[in-house]
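Homework help board

Subject: predicted structure for assignment chain

Our instructor gave us this sequence and asked us to write out the predicted structure in token form, then describe one feature. I got the tokens but I'm not sure how to describe them. Can anyone check?
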Amino acid sequence: MDLRKIKDPSFLKGLNNEQLNKLALDIRKFLLMNISKTGGHLSSNLGIVELTIALHYVFQSPQDKIFFDVGHQAYVHKILTGRAKYFPSLRKYNGLSGFQKKSESIHDVWEAGHSSTALSAATAMAIARDLDHQKFDIVPVVGDGAIVSGESLEALNHLGSLKNKVIIILNDNQMSISKSIGGFNNFLKDVRISNTYNRMKNDYKNMLSKRKYGNKIYHATKNVKDFVKRGLINDTIFENFGLDYLGPVDGHNIEELIRVLNLAKDNKKSVVVHVVTKKGKGYSYAENDTTGKWHGIESFHLKDGSIKAPKNLPSWSAVVSNHVEKWMKKDKDIVAVTPAMIYGSAMNNIFHHFPDRSFDVGIAEEHALTFTAALSLSHKKPFISVYSSFLQRAYDQIVHDISRMNLPCLCSIDRAGIVGSDGPTHHGVFDLSFMNAIPNIVYFAPKDAVELKKFINTAFLNFQAPYFVRIPRGFIEDSDTGMEDTLEIGTWETVLNKDDFDMTIITYGENVSIIEKMIICEQLKIRLVNARFIKPFDKQMIKNIFQNDDKPVLVYETDLKAGSLGSYILEYCNKIHILRSFEHIAIEDHFSIQGSKEEIYKDENIDAGSVLNKCKELMNGKKAY
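My token output:
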């Protein structure tokens, strides 16, 4: 089948089981061929091919609402809803989104780039449907790692108290990004073992249905069967929540999936369909991955699974983790925490070498930060790494549990700033805005590996405050530094042209090196200030910059303008009555699009070229507004 000619899922109704299985093979080949070129979320989509086909076979999208928790496993859904022809543009500038996106298709009824929102959405949709006296099914697909997150459990608790029907598909592949952990995972393991019971039950029902008095016998013995079931798996957590349960079912058996989904469709109340799948199904490198490497992958060679553009430089994440690991060897009180991002935050070696002092708490950012707070309260020295986009979910815990009690910790805010192809759900451009408002914290943005390591040293040698360091996505030139080398909290530095200059640029993070190269390349007389401490910032240098000369000043940021360093400086200048204006380059009040970092910077007018043009304008005599 030419998948690019698919317009909508209605064609599935006319296919037999053999044709449906052939379609699954075609889709896997298509996914591998395309994602190997563009990069993207591979494993989760390879594992959900048969399930997605069965869902669109049984249900009628978009009348029935089929959507996916997180949404990065919606590639097969996109193919079946007529978007295969756009896959060469997957996750690219102005291209196909890597997640469900309402503006792309009427079949995308919910958007999410963070986990565990689907059940809350489904519950609300079911209530609205029934208030309007409509009849359609609502079918959220939730992974085993996401269903135990706080919001999912809150929604389950609410749904169990309602009569409004939702069909929950539990996609159980024993993985979140890396291997699933915790008590719920152990519970699912026990349920999978009970597969024998489910096969016996189905054979029993099928056998009796062919006998003359079969249905009567079946219903008469139902209580006995239920007793046997309780003996094997002690009920399920879902039944205790007030939901019916079907499964576990083989997630790669289309015929069995269709049968069970039809049972769920005929059920009168909310039901959980437990589907067991294999993440990375059909591609050995992805199937055998236990680290999370193949969850989201760069372009790669299909034949041997090697990355097409090997990176010789370490990631920012790796530089942080490697230096923390050195400190863990030195200080037995240092412990490491991650909310299901061991591979993403490059903490593999820490978990390997210090298994008793390393904790993966699952997809649970709120728990992770409160857990960190209590470790600190218990005289440990916790290090935690959380993506900037995900840290938003734990804002109350930072405010209430960490900073309010002024509990020492070291938190790496990973993937800060524009992240590229993951797009608006993952851009880490808000942390400056919400972190600046929190008392007690030390908030740092290093320009290079040396500054980064010095800050880590500063934190562990003076473990008396909540330390937060924001690092971008990408790679960095590594440089070694001594374990005793530290920084003075709250100090900035002049990187170029301390005395002889025509204007000043204030910036932070990796932008310092970018602007430094631009100034040197263009042979400009510009004073460059590295505003490495966002909080507390260098008040004395602010006074020197704005009081001692009247030369133009540009504050350059690649984060959101609202709540930015620039706004923080403006507030301080107003407070001490410095009546000076300055130019400010930053992202305006909107969500940035997907694409490469360079493309997004240009789209937002925050690229080096835009900075250069503004500098020339200012040095040619045009005053700041």
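Reply (TA_rk): Your tokens look well-formed. For the description, you could write something like this. The radius of gyration is 27 Å. That's the kind of observation they're looking for.
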